Amino acid sequence: MKTLVALFAVVAFAGTAFGADVIEMKKGVKFNHKAHQASVGDCKKCHEKGPGKIAGFGKEIAHGKGCKGCHADLKKGPTSCKDCHK
């Protein structure tokens, strides 16, 4: 029984072990992965294909339905250039 509980815990929390706390991106953008994990809760919201890099991530996703779009929809988070590009 202890083994089953331990296995469940490893599977349930495996996603949080893979994400770095803060990711430094291009053009001075710092992405707080840990804060987004806590706020969004569902990794598949951004990582549709599972853990790892976001497929096709670039300016179009960041400025479109991805980052900026999610912030606008939730009315939470930066949406202007200077808020992300320091």
Outline:
The protein has helices at residues 2-18, 33-40, 59-63, 67-74, 81-84, and strands at residues 22-24, 30-32. By secondary structure, it is mainly α. A two-stranded antiparallel sheet has the order 1-2.
Task: Note down, in words, how this protein is organized.
- With 86 residues, the chain is mainly α.
- The protein has one domain: Cytochrome C3.
- Helices cover 49% and strands 7% of the residues.
- It has five helices and two strands, in the order αββαααα.
- It has helices spanning 2-18, 33-40, 59-63, 67-74, 81-84, and strands at 22-24, 30-32.
- Strands 1-2 form a two-stranded antiparallel sheet.
- The longest helix is centred in the first third of the chain and has 17 residues, at 2-18.
- The protein is globular and about 30 Å long.
- The model is unreliable at 3-17 (pLDDT under 50).
Please describe the topology of this protein.
Elements: H1 2-18, E1 22-24, E2 30-32, H2 33-40, H3 59-63, H4 67-74, H5 81-84
